[in-house]
Amino acid sequence: MDVRSAYSSGLTGFLDASAQLSNASSRIAHAGIAEIGMTENQEPSESRSPSAERAPISLTTELVNLKVAEFQAKASAKVISTADEMLGTLINTSV
User: Fold this and answer.
1) Is 17 exposed, middle or buried, given 0-12, 13-18 or 19+ CB atoms closer than 10 A?
2) What is the 3-state secondary structure (H, E, C) of 30-58?
3) CA end-to-end span of the chain, whole Å?
4) Long-range contacts of range 84-88, CB-CB < 8 Å, 24 or more positions apart?
5) In whole angstroms, what is the distance from residue 51 CA to residue 77 CA?
């Protein structure tokens, strides 16, 4: 087994989790801003971005995405840790 590919897989997973966390956090923040821009019986304010008007943001979905990103980051950290232990074992093995 190539240790570099294990490290690479772990790092890629961790970076993906970080990006997913950032995206979900951003969507949650924008949902809060959109709610502030609206009052009762009013349409969304003109200051909202066009992308925010296209798709409503589900806070439940975004909170689930945050939790998924957390689990993905933990799993990726475990992959990196395991690859590190495996490399240490290979180095300590005498031939």
Assistant:
1) buried
2) HHHHHHHCCCCCCCCCCCCCHHHHHCCCC
3) 18
4) 86/1, 86/3, 86/6, 87/3
5) 34
| Averaged pLDDT for residues 10-21 | 95
Share of the chain above pLDDT 90, in %: 46
DSSP state of 94: -
Task: With beta carbons less than 8 A apart as the criterion, state whether 3 and 83 touch.
Answer: yes
Q: What is the pLDDT, as a whole number, of residue 2?
A: 67
Q: What length is written for the chain?
A: 95
d(CA 53, CA 59) in angstroms, rounded, equals 15
Structure tokens at 95: 């031939």
The average pLDDT across 50-69 equals: 80
